[in-house]
């Protein structure tokens, strides 16, 4: 028997951790996931227990190792981006893991974004100045919890903490660091001005390493817990967004990866870092010569869930198909009804926690079918705005590959192709970020020549072409959709100002993922 060629991709997500074993032909050999809760102790807060997450990581690795029954060449990691944890001098958490969905730092983010240096910070670090990012969260801690802020020895992300416990190394990769708002993406070094704003020093952050950096082995405790040899290599890995591009085979310039799950995103791989002049997109690292430019939206599948709960609750819990059937009864463009789908505020391309959802153009002739369809169209139009920002950053877009729960719906697939005005290709089911992590690990361990092989390993199941008439309708509506955001910003600001004197808002139907 030769050397092992199986790599386990470990994806540390917001709702669960998953381990998936792949061989160098891209075949999935074993898989296991363990979920954990997202806590919301106050409105706008979104926290998790880092110890629970670490135990889940150990558990999924152990389950896959047991299922495989053969040696593995190594582990490679993916993680949800933008998490923040404060550690004491012994490496114990002083805070929960604060996730990207946490908006407690909205006021700090808006202040930083409006400052003369706000856009420069974004363009230098690749991360929009938004409450999702660690930079505004650190400013929040300095202002709201100054004693705790002073006690923290190191500020890390969830993957950094997991790797510290698995291998006793305090490192963070360029990909995760590029989503903190604290690293200069052009120098691959911590940004002096960002650290000054955050009120921390370089010594309080992990050592920066490439995503292909290999840690030589596990601690004795971690080896026992996972069932792996102590000398098992650990590839540090990257953020789940860039790795999702790998998992879809969207690794060559011009190929956009689009996903709609609870939230949504659109990313294209580029060879040099950079954002557009208006700061509409992020730029996150994958490897030294591969970066992703794009934007994430807060409101994807959650909008359909809201439409069910608010507009058609009598359809029952598992009524997605009936709800989509209702939407299909309305015409393209929903009879002139536009929905801004900002139920959970929004990220790209405006990067503001201010906006709220809105229906515009409502008349006596509109019914439930129009309301539901307009919600789906609003999500796809928002993604069209993100695509326009990707292009504005100087990127050619030749192909779109899409994945996520929305892909089960032929109607939603068609609306996306029509709204983007270009064909959308749907790959055969792959594990997205987990597969991307495994491929990156294979490159780091010398098992494949380059992550470029992803383009050939991913099979396309179906291509949906835009309908010319529908595409023309959406193209005509897109400028109106875009203008509405700017027109309503003063109203959004007034609503926020009035909020303390109004009855409390109802809680969201489900936490964002």
From TrEMBL:
An individual GO BP term: carbohydrate metabolic process
Residues covered by the Carbohydrate kinase FGGY C-terminal domain: 257-444
Gene3D superfamilies: 3.30.420.40
This protein's UniProt keywords: Kinase, Transferase
Cited InterPro entries: ATPase_NBD, Carb_kinase_FGGY, Carb_kinase_FGGY_CS, FGGY_C, FGGY_Carb_Kinase, FGGY_N
Short name of one Pfam family: FGGY_C
Gene Ontology MF, one: phosphotransferase activity, alcohol group as acceptor
Ranges for domain Carbohydrate kinase FGGY N-terminal: 7-247
Protein name in UniProt: Gluconate kinase, FGGY family
Species of origin: Micromonospora humi
């Amino acid at each position: 028997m030769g050397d092992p060629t199986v790599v386990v991709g470990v994806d540390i997500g917001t709702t669960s951790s998953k381990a998936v074993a792949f061989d160098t032909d891209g075949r999935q050999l074993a898989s296991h996931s363990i979920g954990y809760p997202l806590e919301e102790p106050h409105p706008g807060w979104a926290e998790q227990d880092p110890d629970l997450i670490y135990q889940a990581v150990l558990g999924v690795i152990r389950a896959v190792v047991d299922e495989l029954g053969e040696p593995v060449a190594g582990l490679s990691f993916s993680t949800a981006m933008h998490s923040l944890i404060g550690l004491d001098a012994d490496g114990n958490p002083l805070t929960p893991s604060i996730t990207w969905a946490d908006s407690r730092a909205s006021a700090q983010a808006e202040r930083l974004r409006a400052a003369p240096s706000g856009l420069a910070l974004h363009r230098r670090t690749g991360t929009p100045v938004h409450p999702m990012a660690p930079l505004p969260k650190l400013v929040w801690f300095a202002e709201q919890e100054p004693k705790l802020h002073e006690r923290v020895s190191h500020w890390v992300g969830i993957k950094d903490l997991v790797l510290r416990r698995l291998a006793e190394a305090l490192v963070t990769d360029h990909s995760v660091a590029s989503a903190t708002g604290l690293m200069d993406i052009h120098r691959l070094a911590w940004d002096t001005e960002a650290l000054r704003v955050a009120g921390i020093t370089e010594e309080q952050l992990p050592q920066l390493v490439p995503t292909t950096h290999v840690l030589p082995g596990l601690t004795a405790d971690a080896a026992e817990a996972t069932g792996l040899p102590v000398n098992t290599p650990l590839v540090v890995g990257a953020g789940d967004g860039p790795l999702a591009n790998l998992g879809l085979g969207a690794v060559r310039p011009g190929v956009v990866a689009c996903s709609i799950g609870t939230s949504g995103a659109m990313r294209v791989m580029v060879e040099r870092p950079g954002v557009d002049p208006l700061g509409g997109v992020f730029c996150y690292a994958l490897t030294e010569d591969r970066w992703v430019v794009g934007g994430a939206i807060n409101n994807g599948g959650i909008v359909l869930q809201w439409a069910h709960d608010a507009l058609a609750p009598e359809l029952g819990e598992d009524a997605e198909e009936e709800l989509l059937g209702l939407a299909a009864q309305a015409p393209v463009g929903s009879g002139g009804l536009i929905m801004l789908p900002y139920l959970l505020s929004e990220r790209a391309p405006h990067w503001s926690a201010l906006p709220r959802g809105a229906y515009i153009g409502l008349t006596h002739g509109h019914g439930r079918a129009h309301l539901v369809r307009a919600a789906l169209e609003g999500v796809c139009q928002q993604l069209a705005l993100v695509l326009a920002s990707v292009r504005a950053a100087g990127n050619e877009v030749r192909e779109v590959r899409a994945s996520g729960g929305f892909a089960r719906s032929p109607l939603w697939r068609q609306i996306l192709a029509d709204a983007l005005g270009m064909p959308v290709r749907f790959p055969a089911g792959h594990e997205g970020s987990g597969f991307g992590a495994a491929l990156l690990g294979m490159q780091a361990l010398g098992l494949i020549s380059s992550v470029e092989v992803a383009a050939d390993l991913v099979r396309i199941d179906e291509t949906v072409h835009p309908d010319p008439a529908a595409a023309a309708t959406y193209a005509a509506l897109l400028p109106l959709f875009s203008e509405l955001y700017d027109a309503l910003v003063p109203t959004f600001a007034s609503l926020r100002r009035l909020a303390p004197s109004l009855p409390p808002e109802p809680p969201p139907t489900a936490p964002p993922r």
